[in-house]
Sequence to fold (252 residues):
Amino acid sequence: MLVPRTEHIGSGPSWDCRVCANPWPCVVAKVQLSEQYGRWPTGLAVFLASCMYNAIEDVRAAGCRSPTDMFDRFLGWARQPAIDTSGGVLSITAGRSVTCATDPQTLVSAETFDRIARYFATKAEVTQTYAERATGQFLLFLKAHADAHRSPDFGMRLPTGESYRVVPTRPVDAVWHAALQISESYTAACERIAGAYVHHRPILTEAMGDGTAITYTVAALHATGFQVDMEFWAGEAESCCPPNPPQPGVAG
Fold:
């Protein structure tokens, strides 16, 4: 990875710039990083993502909830219009189009979303606000699954040889379990998002334990263009059942 060359770096636990004390990445850092990684945007994304996860861990270590704007702060700016420093003046140019992430609630009808969120709130005994956030991320998970399913070159392989791409974390899997219990609403969500029923098939692989699976998942989530609430994706991939239980119709 290209090592960033800038004095304007951030550090925990606040992740403010050590030079100008502004929230990092500050304006100067954005300009210098844009110049250094100009021919390697993927490298910039990897570097910024690593900083974001370190910041999330610092916040969690302090006993605080992870801010929901972490992605926008650390990575979102890199998808904004290019920064122009010609003439010694910092300005924004229209070098790239601005992209705004869409609320995943819009993936299904308002009625379907409300039914799943309300049922989950009651089932899990959580606030309606939390239930709506969690349900949105669950729908985003279904969207990422559907998109990845149509791209056979993305992801890994299950022991059965089937394509395996995205996995839920514990809070997202909790919504999945609740949604399965209200079959009409769950089926409606699956058909609207994936075009077919999405079966829940628990499995545990080495990639789920070493972080590889969740890395694929987060990439797939962001690729959808919908809002990713990293508070729901900062943990490990989750298998809700015993490792690799027998699957109906599949020989052991």
Observations:
- The two ends are 43 Å apart (CA to CA).
